[in-house]
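Re: that chain you flagged

S.,

Sorry for the slow reply, it's been a week of failed gels. I finally had a moment to sit down with the sequence you sent. For the record, here it is as I used it:
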Amino acid sequence: MAEDDNWVQASHLAAGFDLDLLVLALNRNNITYRLVEQGEGHELWLDKGQRQADVQQLIAQIQKIAVVEKALNTGKPKGVGSMWRVPVTLITLIFGVLGYFLVSYLPSSVHFLTFVDFTLANGKGPQFIPVEKTFAAGEYWRFVTPAFLHFGIFHVVFNSLWLWEFGRRVELVSGRAAYLVLMLALASGSNAGQYLWDGPVLFGGLSGVVYGLVGYVWIRNRIAPTPLLNVQPGIIYMLIGWLLICLFGIVDVFIQGGVANGAHVSGLLIGMLAGALAGRQKLPN
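Prediction finished late last night. Pasting the structure tokens below so you have them in one place:
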């Protein structure tokens, strides 16, 4: 990237520099930046209107923190403590696992968290209560909580792995508050989308949220590239391909209960829109 009237190179960051912490600090201070891969390290570029002295101070502080962490973490497994840099993602994962255990061991309590409330009577299967009645009673948590319900070990493991892969990247780039808002929008939007797609049926899982994060990373990184969102394109295309396969009903033959296609499509579209808006906000004026 060549220096021009709007951008100036602020620093060359060696390989191993803590980019996660730097991105968090820059975002919290509303500093417009670009990170460009250069050899084994990265170049940090700033808008000429930014506070370059403050950025140099941030870099120096991060370097000092790295020295301290290295001394404290000697002998510890890699990654100890770093998970709490992304608390929203971590807590979401925990809730997803708890939802799996709830479905498996306390099925009589599941109806409190589903999008459409239901009763079980006389062995006839679930008798669904109209959503108008449920939401009129103020049970608005049902827009979000179905995302935590998982109906099998493969279901929860699959969603958890992809949530960690995409979610931690988005949380670091966006900041906790904006990421929390995004997650609530993806959960409620994908759950509502699934209800509109299939009507009153029993559904759940974080896959709608995952597809929302896929869409967010895909579009935002095309508009305003950043190393933290550099996911191999093949992974994005594989997940989109899986969505298309599910839409054709092929997977429904092998999975009891079917696939929540409405949640996947709704989450993806909401994530793409959010990624486009966030990417444009990061572009220089």
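What I noticed first: Confidence is low (pLDDT under 50) at residues 72-80.

Talk soon,
D.
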